[in-house]
Predict the 3D structure of the following.
Amino acid sequence: MTPALRPRTLGLFVGDLLFFTFSLWLSLYLRTFEVPSGQLFLAHLLPFSLLFIVWLGVFFIAGLYESRSIILERRAISVTLLMAQLANVVIAALFFSFIPIFGIAPKTLLVIYLIVSFVLVLLWRVALFPQIGFRRKEQALVVGGGPEVSELVEALRAARHAPTSIANVLDPHSATLQTDIRHAVVEYRPRFIIADFTDHRVLTAFPNLYNYLSQGIRFFDALSLYEEVFGRVPLSVIDQEWLARNVSRYSHTLYDTFKRAMDIVVSIPAAIISLVAYPFIALAIKLEDGGDVLISLPRIGEGDQVFNLYKFRSMSGNDLGVYGQDGVSKLHVTRVGKFLRITRLDEIPQLWSVIKGDLSLIGPRPETPPLVAQYEQEIPFYGVRHLIKPGLSGWAQLYGQHAHHGLGVEETRNKLSYDLYYIKHRSLTLDAVVILKTIKKLLTRSGV
């Protein structure tokens, strides 16, 4: 995360935890309109503290700590917060029902807590948090051009909660760029300079960086900030040098070992438990059209190796990824197949591919050999995504556009920018983020 954004997220996290705690005390008071004793409060605080950890995870899944959501704010915070707190109260009700060891059954308290915590946390985030300095906008200069810088500037200017206020954008094509920067610094007194240092003209316009640093000005690379805000790598920066600096199959040895262990630990019990659903799914598919229950699909995996991916059939046949000259499958999704896709039940046989080692739980989505051949011709560096194992879910599946069952070069180009972000930043932490976000998509049936 960009350093300018870390204090904001940490401040939100600590504040939410404090207001969770205060909401509990206030809810105990409102239940009887008597100040709760220290003993009573502590008796409730212990089990609720365990819930607080889970609740913060729910907030994370809802995007309430994600810098992309904080900056871009695609959804009203009140709606997101209310849905998150509703989920938290349901979790709490189940917790106290199935784990009665704490000796309390706070049914009325939970209803009061839902109202109190929603109001207080909303008040904290909307009214109080902006006043303590974390969300005070600092003046910023932008030095750079191109579509990515323009997109970043537009997003920061439109965002209510951006950490900076764009004072001016300086064109790198200017013959007097160095002078323009010096005058802009005097005029606007910026706290930040967001510069596209991949542009040689921008780089040479700062011969005396120390002078600006001594004035308390902080520099941020425009394209790094772009990655942070949008969660993708701009394809315009991808070249041999970028690959050498950011991509390696062998610099994540320890991470790859832990990831493989996690794949096995999670997939084996999940695959065994899912066997219960197989007869019902097979019966539904057979009753609809009598066709094959399982289909085998060739896919390109790690190191450009072809492997067979198995799924419950959700279409009227198996086109094997051969879509013809128009690039569109001639098949259609069946009624049973539509349900299987919505619930993701069509993909549960892929757990066996994870156990075998062809797939990982998290990684780029595997594509068919014909589509890969086409994409590699039209999209530079497309094959980079095959340096790691493909996955059941991934960063691009969460945020990228998808060309389902057909050739979609522009959608795939967009998806590649997210795949490259994952390859560059892959870690157990990022995998955990993808898993939590995938759970959210499954529960809300979004992104289908």
